[in-house]
Amino acid sequence: MSKVNINVNNKPFTIACDDGQESRVQQLGKYVDERFRELNQAGAAPNESYTLVLTALVIADDMFDAKDQAEKARLQANSSANRGPSPAEIEAKIRAELSAAYDNHIAGLNAEIARLRQAAQSAGNNVTDLAKARAEAEAALKAREAEIAKVVDAMTERVEAAVKKLKRA
After folding, report:
1. Residue 159 to residue 143: CA distance in whole angstroms
2. How far is it, in rounded angstroms, from Cα 35 to Cα 29?
3. pTM attached to this predicted model
């Protein structure tokens, strides 16, 4: 059993998990923190507790939507009257969704770079501060690109497995 430290709303939490699941728990923690920050910045809730509950509901809604889509896809695949989309069409759709997700991550990274540049400028345009902000932005970009690459690889494997199953069916 391992323990992982995550932060949500700048508050640390220690989470127990199975060995080998540490990076996944950290990834999930970052996702929850991002969703929390989005809702908090939008002013969707009057206090932190309410924002946490709202965050959980939004994530649960996302999960239920994904489950509904998976169930619809399963029913279409199993329907003898309507064979549904071909494996190539399913693969193209999943690739398009992955591409959109990747584009969203890139947009987030670009926003983070812009924020870091703005922070460097507001610090008096000090060359040292600008170099530090640039290095931080590049490090953040590399880290996020690595995360995106892992997600894309995992999704590609899942798509290929799904395509193989569909071809067998």
Report:
1. 24
2. 10
3. 0.43
Tokens for 155, please give them: 């999704």
Amino acid identity, position 125 = N
Q: Where are the alpha helices (DSSP H) in the chain?
A: 22-42, 48-78, 87-122, 127-168
* Cα radius of gyration (the chain): 20
Q: For the segment 94-126, what is each residue's pLDDT rounded down to a tens digit?
A: 888 877 877 777 777 777 777 777 776 766 555
- pLDDT of 20 higher than 60: yes
Q: Which two tokens stand for residue 14?
A: 């220690």
pLDDT, the chain, mean = 83
Question: CA 38 to CA 33: how far, in whole Å?
Answer: 9
| Largest distance between two CA atoms of the chain | 68
Which is it for the CA torsion 12, 16, 22, 25, positive or negative?
A: negative
Q: CA separation (Å) from 128 to 53, 96, 136?
A: 41, 41, 12
Q: Are the C-beta atoms of residues 123 and 129 closer than 8 Å to each other?
A: yes
Rounded distance between C-alpha atoms, residue 151 and residue 52, angstroms: 25
Confidence of residue 87 (pLDDT cuts 50, 70, 90): confident
Question: Residue 7's pLDDT is what?
Answer: 95
